[in-house]
Amino acid sequence: MIQQTLGDALRFFREQRGISLRALAEKTNVSPSFLSQIENGQCSPSISSMEKIANALGVTLGQFFLSANQQTAKVVRASERAHMALDWSRAEIASLGSLPEGSHFRASMITIKPGGLTGKHATPSISDEFSIVFEGTAILKLQDGEQTLGRGDSVTIVAGTNRQWRNESDAITEILVISLGPHVAISS
Predict the structure, then answer these.
(1) Terminal C-alpha separation, the chain
(2) Phi, psi (5° rounding) for residue 42?
(3) Within 13 Å, how many C-alpha atoms sit on residue 55's CB side?
(4) How far is CA 95 from CA 4, 13, 30, 34, 80, in A?
(5) Measuring CA to CA, which residue among 133, 109, 123 is closest to residue 54?
(6) Do 55 and 88 belong together in one domain?
(7) What DSSP character marks residue 88?
(8) What's the whole-model pTM score?
(9) How many structural domains is the chain composed of?
(10) What confidence tens digit (pLDDT) does each residue in 33-68 have?
(11) Long-range contacts made by residues 29-38, C-beta under 8 angstroms, separation at least 24?
(12) Quick check: is 187 in a domain?
């Protein structure tokens, strides 16, 4: 079950960095009990919640998936993709692949059922992203408005930009997301 392996990966990264549930909760603006429920496989977090947690821990969603799968393969078979279903939001994210430890490149497929969305609110991307609507129609909410994207339409989003995907159509929407990050500011 992906919730449990995701929870195990969260616990591993949190303990590896010596961060308590309470400290991580403060960094991510979620409750310690919610983080505990994720670690124990008792809840299904949103994509935006997992991005906030990953960012606070200094890892990517791809690293969570790799850790949860305990394998680093360059070929990812469709039937073997690590994925996280988000029942309440009617969305799912699947890892299509990432590069070995140390790289921040990752590719994911977001599938949104009719009436679904990626999170309750638009949240900032933790990395630069390229997205293309692979199937269906999606509404992309950005901090400066909304755009409707159809099959084949693409968008680049700079790290830190608030965004939310939703599907108001009667068909499933699939969005391919390629990320490079998290974006780290270099100080002199």
Answers:
(1) 44
(2) -100, -5
(3) 22
(4) 16, 18, 24, 23, 10
(5) 123
(6) no
(7) G
(8) 0.62
(9) 2
(10) 999 988 888 887 887 888 888 888 888 776 666 655
(11) 35/10, 38/3, 38/6, 38/7, 38/10
(12) no
Looking at residue 140, which CATH number applies to its domain?
A: 2.60.120.10
Partners of 67 in beta bridges: none
Q: Are residues 97 and 59 in the same domain?
A: no
Q: How far does Cα 59 stand from its chain's mean position?
A: 11
Instruction: Assess contact for 123 and 51: CB atoms under 8 A.
Output: yes
Residues 84 and 16 in one domain: no
Q: What is the pLDDT of residues 155-180, one digit of tens each?
A: 999 988 999 999 999 999 999 999 88
The residue segments making up the domain with residue 82 are 78-180
The candidate with the shortest Cα–Cα distance to 108, out of 183, 164, 180, 157, is 180
